[in-house]
């Protein structure tokens, strides 16, 4: 619906990823590696210079998503789920993760306008 804001929460996103990893990826070590890669992707803005624009961060996010898809192409069920459900939301999620003192990441809900 146009004009409706969507709230994304890091915890809920990670919970959805983990549930689908458990369902779609049988190898426990591979699941753990994939989950860590997704967590790193979510926290991209913490590692980037504070001077970066949202566009630069979104471009980096797209590049990292492509690497994720290539690295885990042997798990097509999860990759397809992720592309379908999360790929369009990742830029907003990554840009919305807040940096606090000491690079701690806030788990506060992230408001994203209509693109989600």
Description:
Helix content is 62%, strand content 7%. It is mainly alpha-helical and 116 residues long. The protein has one domain (5-113). The chain has a two-stranded antiparallel sheet. α1 runs antiparallel to α5 (76-85), α2 packs antiparallel against α4 (54-71) and α4 crosses α6. The protein is globular and about 40 Å long. Residues 99-116 have low confidence and may be disordered.
Specify the number of helices.
6
Largest sheet composition: 2 strands, antiparallel
Q: Roughly what is the average pLDDT, rounded to an integer?
A: 77
**Computed Rg:** 14 Å
Contiguous runs where pLDDT drops below 50 for at least 5 residues = 99-116
The total number of structural domains is: 1
Structural class label: mainly alpha
- Strand count: 2
- Distance between the first and last residues' Cα: 10 Å
Silhouette: globular
The run of helices and strands is EHHHHHHE
The percent range for helix content is: 55-70%
What proportion of the residues form beta strands (DSSP E)? 5-15%
User: Widest sheet: strand order?
Assistant: 1-2
Question: Can I get a quick summary?
Answer:
The chain has 116 residues and is mainly α. It has helices at 10-24, 28-42, 44-47, 54-71, 76-85, 87-96; strands at 5-8, 110-113.
Which features does this protein show?
two-stranded antiparallel sheet; 116 residues; mainly alpha; 7% strand
